Amino acid sequence: KGWRRRPLAAAAHLILGIFWKSHRRGRFFFSACFFEDSNRNTKLHMAHSSQFQLHARARAPPPRGGGGGQLQRPCLLHRRNATRIRASSSSGASIIDGKLTAGQIRQEVALAVSALTSSGLRPPGLAVLLVGERKDSATYVRNKKLACEEAGIVSFGTDLPDTATQQQVIDAVKAFADDPNVDGILVQLPLPDGMDERAVLSAVPIEKDVDGFDPLNLGMLATRGTEPLFVPCTAAGCLELLQRYDVPIRGKVAAVVGRSNIVGTPTAMLLQNAGATVTVVHSQTPDAKAVCANADIVVAACGVPEMVRGDWIKPGAAVIDVGINAKDDPTKKRGYRLVGDVAFDEAKEVAGAITPVPGGVGPMTIAMLLKNTLDARMRSS
Ligand code: NAP
């Protein structure tokens, strides 16, 4: 159709396409639907079709010589087609490298955003609301904004003082909820003492709930036959690591230590949905060690430094350590070092694969936030 209506444009597209194909040794990046008309949906379809081309390349055989912790092939954000990464290992368990994987996901998001914008569409927008002067929260927010910038996602922000009232915070959330350029809203937690977190979070509309904290999202995750709009980022990051490192889940036994709404519970649901038999360990569990020692996959998210010891791990199990704790260490310049909820040095002698802290689940959380924001943008059209 396009060829007849706009022969010059079609010829130019063909030449560019041939150039692109020979240059990248891939397929045509954009499909011919470009010529059908220029309405938003068609353009959006074009952006989607470029994603599918990336999928197609992701499914191609890996290049020779890849491996050893290197990403083997490009891909886009689709679980079943996610890039498989070989875990690296010096001695003991293989290392599941969250930094490397997060970098790959951020690249994939950046590619998809650039496909959107190069077709004349609005880039995704993420709004981050910071209340108070906590230094750690300010650092997290700064890192999220930087990550957005790198991926081509537009970031919006409102910083309110500690003295802001709950109503002022809710009004700020509602302003972003009404802004058509904002696809995702994130309220940096914790909020100052005395503020009702649930009341503030419930002002975030579910279609912009990129943190996945809305009870409806969690409910849909727990209900068979329904899919949540968003999965909480840290939990999604844990699953993404297991899947990209080809850790078998279906038919396996998993233990999740911790049952918080943002990490433990959604991770347990994701593992169960992926076919694992899951036991959730919490502060009232009588024999946490025995539960973990029986598991092929252990996810530790209890906030107790190095609680999961080496003798809690079944030989060959995969261990995902979500914990981030500061432990006094006078040998360090800053007087402490970061440790997880797993005693890494002991566990790595027994496990088959393990995430380090730092450099494991931590970087995945921001990467999954970018992915959720991109998903929100795609859905908004
Ligand atoms: P949380 O809300 O404090 O929840 C901790 C959970 O662990 C609770 O369910 C608690 O059980 C359970 N627990 C505490 N002590 C226990 C014990 N001795 N034995 C068994 N279970 C115990 O923490 P969270 O927000 O889920 O975070 C967990 C960890 O992940 C923290 O270290 C946090 O810093 C880290 N984190 C990391 C990221 C990241 O991006 N990597 C993101 C979020 C959190 P009860 O329910 O019975 O109290």
Automatic annotation (TrEMBL):
Question: What residue stretches are annotated with the Tetrahydrofolate dehydrogenase/cyclohydrolase catalytic domain?
Answer: 96-211
| CDD domains (UniProt xref) | NAD_bind_m-THF_DH_Cyclohyd
Molecular function as annotated in GO: methenyltetrahydrofolate cyclohydrolase activity; methylenetetrahydrofolate dehydrogenase (NADP+) activity
Pathway, per record: One-carbon metabolism; tetrahydrofolate interconversion
Top-rank taxon? Eukaryota
Which SUPFAM superfamilies did the record assign?
A: Aminoacid dehydrogenase-like, N-terminal domain, NAD(P)-binding Rossmann-fold domains
Q: Which GO terms describe its biological process?
A: tetrahydrofolate interconversion
GO cellular component terms, A-Z: cytosol
A Pfam match is THF_DHG_CYH
Provide the Tetrahydrofolate dehydrogenase/cyclohydrolase NAD(P)-binding domain boundaries: 232-378
Keyword tags: Hydrolase, Multifunctional enzyme, NADP, One-carbon metabolism, Oxidoreductase
Which reactions does this protein catalyse?
(6R)-5,10-methylene-5,6,7,8-tetrahydrofolate + NADP(+) = (6R)-5,10-methenyltetrahydrofolate + NADPH
What interactions and quaternary structure are annotated? Homodimer.
The job of this chain, per UniProt, is described as:
Catalyzes the oxidation of 5,10-methylenetetrahydrofolate to 5,10-methenyltetrahydrofolate and then the hydrolysis of 5,10-methenyltetrahydrofolate to 10-formyltetrahydrofolate.
For this chain, the family text in UniProt reads: Belongs to the tetrahydrofolate dehydrogenase/cyclohydrolase family.
Protein's UniProt name: Methenyltetrahydrofolate cyclohydrolase
Organism, as annotated: Pycnococcus provasolii
